[in-house]
Amino acid sequence: MNLNQLVLEITRPMSGTCLDPTYSNYSHRIQNIVCPVIGLADHLPLFAVRKHSNQRERPNVKRINNNYIQYRNMKRFDAELFKQTLMQTPWDSVFIFDETDDVLDSWEKLFIDGLEQHCPWRTKRVAWVNQAPWITPAIIKQLQFRDALLKKFRRHRNPSVWADYKKARNKAVGMLRNIKRKFYVSKLEQNENDTKGTWKIIKSISGMVKQSKRVNSL
């Protein structure tokens, strides 16, 4: 778990000891820890300030890149079978180590091994985190509708579903073309008097990539 003790100060001056150890395996998320000397008692107060992020973190999901994530497959998870696995796990074996960190690492490995048997990691393709600026909720909804029809056709092979899919696909293509054209027209109008900005937009439309010049070795 890689836990780190973050309190390095004495919290009880009379005995010269630290009675408030604070552990974290994400030390970079702790912004500050303060132990002010206040003479109200022999035990000093301790304040820990944690950095806050608006993005929700999902512990069972790992993002590999913008296209794929790994997640715990809970579809066939059976809590009772998992409990039986935990009961059969040789937990006493962790106490062969003398160091606390080694005991904790050994316990974590046993627990993760049992977890892998019942809800292993799976890889799934997902949408890009940073969508194109012209993508709107309406377009996303249409794309999802198109994909749902294609999935339905692959499952049932119904000609009428295929016809509905082609209509939804063509509508999605038309929506993308129109919104993309409006987006770039608006950008060009905004940069009408900015030559550099105009060329930047043109390059993004045409897909031009600046090539770095390389000097051959003499």
From TrEMBL:
Domain of life: Eukaryota
Protein name: Uncharacterized protein
Organism: Acropora cervicornis (Staghorn coral)
Lineage: Eukaryota, Metazoa, Cnidaria, Anthozoa, Hexacorallia
